[in-house]
């Protein structure tokens, strides 16, 4: 074994020597975290990035403005000179074509005499570059036959100057130079270029200063948000982000964060209330089951007594298990993890099945169930889940209705699908309706009835999962529960789904 390990080590060593590129790659991979660890802190600042972005955009805009100004001033001067030279050359070409060499010489002499600004430049030479006409003494050394226009220093009348010259080749191997003295224009262009350059330097400085101001403003604006989140992380859920009152984007962000914090606070309160409710509501059946089992162990006189005590304890524990099952169903619905079964469906057959099932239960208690349905009622969602919610409402209505009372089951559709269940029971006081949909909440009228206070909580969760609402209102007397759901536009899909749903699923309402 030792020899085998030694051989493997030698092979690995030879492989690393044979592949230096891989070794370098490994070294680079190892050094990346180290470089990240030693990177400057300011490069990881969002304020610095925003400020740099502002400076870059401001600088690009200023550079574009400077280039446009240069093009509109110094560039304009050069374009005017080029246009004048071309027009002058066109006129000389026409004279050459009409009168030949004598006409061209005469025209050059006339134009030199009429040139008030003394900036025109002409030179006509023969094939040996001997001067024939013009105001230049000799052919400039910088003018070659490889290009047509030049900007170069010349000597004219004993004075050196800067000229922009165009070269033209004529028939008979004659050569013509036409140009303008641009010394004054060159100085003006240089002056404009220097001014724009220094203006660009000033703009860069202003961009840097503006970037610093943007960073400071952004940091100060986000400071309160940072302090608030730190306080909340430390456990102070009462802290909120301050508003500046300007109504800008940061105020809207602060309002959104405050709404989120309010929601989190309510959820935390709900978790505490649910924990307390579980502790109080489930302690009684568990304690009762334990007491019965303990009493049976100590006082059961026969096997039948012991079996009866065990069965009663099992029933109590089944109630506890059903409560936990309802809590898990509500949690799954609120988490949105049960959307996989969503499909177009017609709620009219669902409500008809429920009316048939609960109509018999209502008759047993001397109640009358009145059904008013519009067909079809196309919706999009989980058919069984919606059936469960409607069943909970009907179960509550039957449970709390007085003898010989009436219960209404209505289904209508306009812009949305509206399902309504109403009764003539004691109802829910207006002050308690907002709490009635909370888990384990039980009003005064419901404390003497069986249940755990989860029925309306499940209905609320189902309605919200389907993008709808649950509204509890007064029926004068009694309670009116209204579920509003988005309408499914594809009616054909709803009809197909309604035809498929001939079978009825088992309905197990959560006791509320």
Order of helices and strands: HHHHEEEEEHHHEHEEHEEHHEEH
Could you tell me the strand content as a percent range?
A: 15-25%
CATH top level of the domain at 338-500 is Alpha Beta
Helix content, binned percent = 55-70%
Quick synopsis:
The chain is of the alpha+beta class and 512 residues long. Helix content is 58%, strand content 16%. The model is unreliable at 1-39 and 489-508 (pLDDT under 50).
Describe this entry's structure for a reader.
- The structure is a single chain.
- The strands form three sheets. A five-stranded antiparallel sheet has the order 2-1-5-4-3.
- It contains twelve helices and twelve strands.
- Among the domains are: 74-181, PAS domain (Beta-Lactamase, 2-Layer Sandwich), CATH 3.30.450.20; 249-332; 338-500, Heat Shock Protein 90.
- The longest helix is centred in the middle third of the chain and has 51 residues, at 183-233.
- A hairpin with a 2-residue loop joins strand 3 and strand 4.
- With 512 residues, it is α+β, with helices and mostly antiparallel strands.
- The protein has helices spanning 2-18, 20-37, 46-72, 74-114, 183-233, 249-299, 303-335, 347-364, 383-400, 433-436, 455-465, 491-500; strands at residues 120-125, 131-134, 149-156, 159-170, 174-181, 343-346, 368-373, 378-381, 406-413, 416-422, 469-474, 479-486.
- The protein is 58% helix and 16% strand.
- Helix 4 runs antiparallel to helix 5 and helix 9 (383-400) packs antiparallel against helix 11.
